[in-house]
């Protein structure tokens, strides 16, 4: 595997990213083209990044500005093809998103995840990448499934 290259998502990345989504089940892959449309058309501040490895699209990151907040953004999606997880590709995507926001003079990046045992590695990933647990909303996603909010000052 060559060094990952992270850049703005293009239409050429869609098929590869749909395979990432099919493998991770983050959300249904058929939703991706519509979700990307405003970003690809340059009609939104929200941005998508794609991680490429050996010429293939193998990971994605989707980040949006928080409404009514000054310089606060939310990373709504982060996924890496399952067979490549644990190889720092997710970290490369997060770092690229953070750098993009820093370059724009933004202040804070947050990310929401689940408090269940199934998401323990996800929470560990964010902690290892400098995010701190800022809040927990009990039973948010479902009974027994807390919403855990991580925050990082940029």
Describe what you observe in this structure:
There is one protein chain. The chain is an alpha+beta fold and 154 residues long. It has helices at 14-24, 32-40, 89-103, 120-128, and strands at residues 5-8, 47-53, 56-65, 72-80, 108-114, 132-142, 145-153. The two termini are 30 Å apart. The model has no long low-confidence stretch (mean pLDDT 96).
Keywords:
alpha+beta; seven-stranded mixed sheet; about 150 residues; about 35% strand
Count every helix, treating DSSP H or I runs of 4 or more residues as helices. Answer: 4
**SSE string, helix = H, strand = E?**
EHHEEEHEHEE
How far apart are the termini? Answer: 30 Å
Work out the helicity level.
25-40%
Global structural class: alpha+beta
- Count all strands and give the number: 7
Name the overall outline.
globular
Mean pLDDT over all positions: 96
Give a short overview:
This protein has 154 residues and is an alpha+beta fold. The protein contains 4 helices and 7 strands; from the N terminus they run E-H-H-E-E-E-H-E-H-E-E.
Helices and strands in order:
Layout: E1 5-8, H1 14-24, H2 32-40, E2 47-53, E3 56-65, E4 72-80, H3 89-103, E5 108-114, H4 120-128, E6 132-142, E7 145-153
Parallel strand pairs: 4-5
Antiparallel strand pairs: 1-2, 2-3, 3-4, 5-7, 6-7
